[in-house]
Structure formats: structure tokens, C-alpha cells
Amino acid sequence: MRLIIASNNAHKLEEIRAIPGEHFGEILSMREAGIEHETVEDGTTFLQNAEKKAREIAAISGCCALADDSGLCVDALDGAPGIFSARFAGVHGDDEANNDLLLAKLQNTENRGAHYSCAMALVYPDGRLVTAEGELYGEIGRERHGSNGFGYDPLFYLPDRGCTTAELSPDEKNAISHRAIALHNLVAKLKESKS
Fold first, then answer.
1. Containing H/E element for 136?
2. For position 14, what pLDDT does the model report?
3. Catalytic annotation present for 100
């Protein structure tokens, strides 16, 4: 069974491909499947956006489609940037500007608690929907550390590991990330449905 991942983000594709492989014969990005489509992410939750993306790609491709929506939720900012994480500073995907803005907003704040949140939606050609979510808890550091990962990883500090997610190797991050947790939860649901 072919699975289309509703993304062309190389970092996300790498993380996602590493986990649900046994359930699908072929896993392709939208680009590899020849699909050029931009979903308008107008949901109010990560799950709504993920489901919308997956449903649109499943309808276009006639294949299973897997989409995620994820972001950073900061306690002192009442959960912001949340669904606006990628465009927090105004331009989609400008990691440097997003991190600069986050540091500026937390400049005089002692409460540094935050978590990454990920929602996954898998839609089958017949419309069936399987969803799962995952979260990774940590703190927002006061300066960037590490060069791995992407997004807010250089600022996302893991107290139990004494480093940021950008200081983890890709394999270490993939083992504990919010996306990995959501994927493992999704795979567990797939296994349950087959048993």
C-alpha cells in the first residue's frame, strides 16, 4: 500500500519515514508522488490542520495520506506560538526570526516551561481516519545551543538530558521527539486495528 506524506519538509520526511515503514509498501513525499498542492491551514488546532492536509492529499492521490501539524507551545505565552509556530515572526519558515522573537518575548520571564506538540492524521482512500498526538516537554533556553534539528530546537532545552534538542543527534532526537511519539501512537493504533 502506498503512503503519501503530506509534506516536502526534508526534516519531517526523515523523521516520519523512520517509523511506519512496515505498514506501507512505499512511502513518498508529495514531490516524489508528483503532487503540487498547498493546503490552507485554517484550523484552530494542530489536529484540525493535520486532518485537513491528509484528506486533501488522499483525495488528490487516491492513496493513503499522512499529515502532521506541530509546533511549540510556551507556558508564559498562553500556548503561543502554537499553530503559528512556523510563521511566528511573520514569514513562514524563518527559524532565525522566530527564535529571535521568542527570546524577545521571554526576555524578562522566569517561567520558561514549554512543550512541542504534534498531531498526526492518516486518511485512507475510503475516508477512514486514524489520528494520534505526541508531546515533548522542556524549557526555553536564554540562548541558542546546537546545530542539529530545525525550528526552535536550538532554544528547546531538555533538563533531563542537559542539552537542547539541537544538540541531540538525529537518531537521539527521532527517538524522543513529539513527532516520534505521535507516530508511535499512530502505529500502535494501526496494529490494534489489524489484530
1. strand 129-140
2. 76
3. no
